[in-house]
Amino acid sequence: MMNVGIIGFGSAGKRHYENCLVLGYSAEVHSSHKKSTLQQKKYDLIVIASKTKDHYKDVFRFKDYSDTFMIEKPLAMNLTEAKKIKQILKNKTALVGYTMIFNPMINKLKDILDKNKLGKINLVQIHCGSYLPSWRKGNYTKNYSANRKMGGGVLRELIHETNYAQFLFPNPIKKILGYCAKISHLKIKSEDIGLIVFIQKQGDIVITLNYFQNLPERYIKIHAEKGTIFCDLINKDLKIFDEKNNLTYDKKFEFERNDTFIDELKFATLISAKKEKIPSILSMDQAIKDLGIIEKIEKNRN
Prior knowledge:
It is built from eight helices and 13 strands. The chain is α/β, with parallel strands linked by helices. The protein folds into two domains: 111 residues, NAD(P)-binding Rossmann-like Domain (Rossmann fold), CATH 3.40.50; 152 residues, Dihydrodipicolinate Reductase, domain 2, CATH 3.30.360.10. The chain has an eight-stranded mixed β-sheet, with helices on one face. It is globular and about 65 Å long. It starts with a strand and ends with a helix.
């Protein structure tokens, strides 16, 4: 039986704990909030699901409790701490919790793009916008998402988009542009809008993120020479149009958001059993690169 130690019992930690039970794993939680501690000294997998600001100290504290770690995104509060985590775990195996890489729509889109039937890609538009007060129960102003010093802000909270953009379009990034600011009425101490631009040889990628959008949207639009792809990640619909705007592909996906977390946990199990290797997109090196991109954009904070 898989033996899992979970550090932190917020929304992510609770989800991982419940999913462990669904999969028949043995799971224990270390959480001051839950007033519980790990009862063993060795686990098949340690999941770091504490607040982003606590990742570094928690990795250091529990580094000897397992040979395999799964660390929630973002890897750390900043680039410096992320590099220290990599050094602490240099003799361990660690993957970063980018669950969108387990989303079947993202993987189908990756398959489509790899076949390269739409010709040169001119522009990719990636968007994720929703209303922060609707994310979780309770006072949103007290949540870490609302405080940059606790790891909040759209660039870090919505780092999935930065990550999966590089999964779908792995060509070297020639130049990175961006901007972030706090512009809405929300009573928060973090950025509520972010813009990231990747300049690549094969088309430019524009990522827009916000906390203040009443109508939630999460999509990918790909404008190519021979057609257009629209991937609606909320309504789970993937459409392809040819150059004359004729609909040539239309698929509705049937899955739940939690399925991606289940698949992620199963994959971590295979990693622990040495039956799978960590793909580069889920590696600490990639997570460090992602944080580097964000810190570059934050220098242009308004």
